[in-house]
Amino acid sequence: MQIYLPIAEVSVNALTLVGLGGLVGLMSGLFGVGGGFLITPLLFFIGIPPPIAVATGANQVVASSVSGVLAHVKRKSVDFRMGGVLLVGGLIGSVLGVLVFNVLQSLGQLDLVVQLCYVVFLGLIGLMMLQESVRSLRRSKSPTYRKRLHQHTWVHRWPLKMKFRASGLYISVFPPLMVGVAVGVLAAIMGVGGGFIMVPAMIYLLGMPTKVVVGTSLFQITFVTAFTTLMHAVSYNTVDIMLAVLLIIGGVIGAQIGTGLGAKLRAEQLRILLALLVLLVCGKLALDLFLTPDDLYAITAGVQ
Asked: What is the per-residue DSSP string for 219-266?
């Protein structure tokens, strides 16, 4: 069932788009990531221009995140205070990211920079998560290993501390703000929710328990990506409504399924699966970026 996307100016199979949305929604509910790190490269692969893929992919992340966060609210696994601090940083980062996006697009370097960012970030994050997850899984199987209940790091020495009861933390607001800003910038430039950065940061940097990380991550992602999508739509007209609707339909269904599956798996197993998925997408992007294409020359129309 082929349909024509007016903004992207390409014809694609509608069922393929619904399937992609469902896959990303599944990742959202299962891992607590918005899924933009997956949906945007997949849209590249089926021929959607990068500016359209970035802006519309962020729109789909909103729907998947809303569906996932509602399920986590019912299970009381969302730290709303921590989510609020992350959200403030995320909105600031989104404004900065959209400005950078505009500069890169005017210079004609947006496609290259976006793909390079994906390869670098996905590669680093995937390797770090895989290493730490395997180490945690081995420690959990060791009868002689005992995890310390409270581990104080440099984060605990910063000023302006706040108590986050749902996470059991008493730390400075500056580290969560910095994480939020970084995620906001990535959301605007790469069309991602930023969960693949935020989830590891919340676990390993802020020290949040895994049981509230997924829901809190989705809470922040929902508002930051919604704000980012609105800015892209108003400023650059790069959101394809038809494409977004089909992705959203699949995403909402997939997020509910993913949330149910996530409750049945251990935290270490979830992190290993996410790390492997991140590395798989990174490898595919790296091959497409560095291998010689079949057609050395192509004529494309820029997005106005």
From this structure: HHHHHHHHHHHHHHHHHH----HHHHHHHHHHHHHHHHHHHHHHTTS-
Residue 282: in which H helix or E strand, if any? Answer: helix 267-290
Nearest to 25 by CA among 55, 68, 59, 58: 68
CA atoms of 302 and 304, how far apart (whole Å): 6
Instruction: Check if the beta carbon of residue 213 is closer than 8 Å to that of residue 202.
Output: yes
Helix, strand, or coil (residue 194): coil
Cα 211 from Cα 240, distance rounded (Å): 35
Q: Looking at residue 163, what is its pLDDT?
A: 82
CB distance 29 to 68 below 8 Å: yes
User: One-letter amino acid identity for 299?
Assistant: I
Whether residue 83 lies inside any domain: the answer is: yes
| Any domain includes 1 | no
Print the domain residue range for 178: 12-141+170-289
Q: Is residue 53 a part of any domain in this protein?
A: yes
Burial 179-208 (b: 16+ CB within 10 A, else e): bbbbbbbbbbbbbbbbbbbbbbbbbebbbb
Model confidence pLDDT, tens digit, residues 252-296: 788 777 777 766 666 666 667 777 877 887 787 788 777 655 555
Q: Cα–Cα distance between 202 and 153 in angstroms, integer?
A: 13
Type and span of the H or E element at 161: strand 161-164
In this structure, is residue 25 part of a structural domain? yes
In angstroms, the CA 190 to CA 55 distance is 9
Residue of 175, 178, 183, 176 whose CA lies nearest to 34: 183
d(CA 105, CA 101): 6
- The domain total for the chain is 1
The DSSP secondary-structure symbol of 304 reads: -
Look at residue 191 in the predicted model and tell me its pLDDT.
Answer: 66
